[in-house]
Design a protein that fits this description.
single chain; about 525 residues; alpha/beta; FAD/NAD(P)-binding domain; 3 domains; five-stranded parallel sheet; binds flavin-adenine dinucleotide
Amino acid sequence: MSEYDAIIIGAGHNGLTTANYLALGGLRVCVLERRAVVGGAAVTAEFHPGYRNSTFSYVVSLLRPEVIKDLNLAHYGYEPIPLHNALYIDSSGDYLLLTDDDQRNANEFNKFSATDYAAYRAFEQTVEQVGALLSKQWLNEPPKLGDQGVSDLISVMKLGVDVFKLDAEARWRLMQFFVGAPETIIDRWFESAKVKAMVAAHIMPANYAPLSQPGASLAMLHHAVGEIKGQAGAWGIVKGGMGSITRAMAQSARAKGVDIRTDAAVRRIEVAGGRVTGVTLETDEFIAAPIIAANTDPKRTLLDLLGDAHLPSEFARDIRAFRQESASLRMNVALSALPEFEALPSAGQIADYHRASITMTEGAEHLNQAFYSAKRGEPAAPPLIEVIIPSVLDPDLTDKSGHHVMSLLCKYMPYSLSGGRSWDEEKANVVDGIVNYVERFIPRFRDILVGYECFTPLDLERTLGMTRGDICHGRLEPDQLFNMRPHPEAAQYAMPVGGLYLCGSGAHPGGGVTGAPGHNAAKRILKDQ
Ligand SMILES: Cc1cc2nc3c(=O)[nH]c(=O)nc-3n(C[C@H](O)[C@H](O)[C@H](O)COP(=O)(O)OP(=O)(O)OC[C@H]3O[C@@H](n4cnc5c(N)ncnc54)[C@H](O)[C@@H]3O)c2cc1C
């Protein structure tokens, strides 16, 4: 008899979530993590002496309240801190700063248009309505696309009723988000180029697509279903960085008897008679279990660890065609002083924008150019950059008072560079270009920069095992979501080999720090017992 009922490959936040729920269901569980630390993309580290930050993912909203409660994460130290404001700024110094003050927000929009604020409010309301509908699907197993049973029919009917309950305007918008192109939606709602620039950046959060791509704004809805402390749509940081989430998840799992092994890379999933029997580690150690839940992405799990010889050939072909790439580059920056934007002087004092999620974008056309540049294998220059300064809200991230850390997510950075160039050779140039660009907003940036770390898409793949550096384990596009993620025959977490399940972001509902695929996979596994 095996020592374990289930093995989880990978201690990302979803793997840890699955481990917790399986242990709650009475299973003996072992988690095997390749890295020396647990957490996957949700970790905190000291990246420069005296400066700590969330290394990869950096803001929270999507983590399901049910998971927070069931795993008792607050007890183990999870504490979100809301970001109240949002700044959209271009290098000419034009900006929109959105705060909790409605009149102030109206004044910001009125700088560029007399009608766009009203349009924005209506747009946000629709997004909230549709987001609320989608969020109800997050902790449910999607109904099967084919070979349906009664439970599939019931869940399709429930979804139909939810859509039916929307008002006609919201239903129309829902359809537009699914099949319309972001640029059409933006042009329909807004008139000012500056406001359109803001909405374009907002509507395309983690996806790798141009504004003309139908369905590309679905990724925005995916990012609109979250909450912090009951406040719908709110985003924030986590005290101590995102690693506090996964540390809490690991502690919660250990308290339930889960064994978590780090430096334990799985080389192969073993199969006999059409069922998994266990895994072999890179050290040649074999660990037996009748159930394996893979927190690794679909291609890594099914093509590398399992091997397509164990899969139906058409299924394997479809998994090879599953699109994984998000063209993201991530930097953590150590600063010896508060970064001050030239357009928003604050005399060295912390201002509203320092507590904001900040987007540096030159406009809607910039986004398109950045995308087409990346498609040619050229890193976008400049990229679109999302920035936060978490040390403003969590001063313990730096040893010295008045020093800061900054997170930069730079978008439209392709995994494959043109002319066979390697990221290892190009990285320094690209970082230099990013620093030059940020200096156009923060003139003293180079003077106060004391250190940084940078993860190119290749580094993300090497460090986290994310195929082609896709931060969501697969693009969030209509044909790769819901009951098609990662494949219509594997969207209920069970893979076509007996005992093998997918519990990471490559399963419904997709990427982000959500805990949802981990939760749903565990429910499926327990149901199959
Ligand atoms: C740079 C970046 C920025 C992001 N920003 C945000 C953000 O701000 N907010 C947000 O909500 N989301 C963000 N995301 C997305 C989000 O972090 C991820 O989608 C999510 O954390 C993935 O979680 P997961 O548990 O599904 O998988 P992962 O976190 O990828 O975990 C998979 C685990 O499997 C391990 N593993 C891989 N191969 C093996 C093997 N052979 N054997 C054993 N273990 C293995 C890996 O080391 C890893 O620990 C970001 C992601 C990245 C990379």
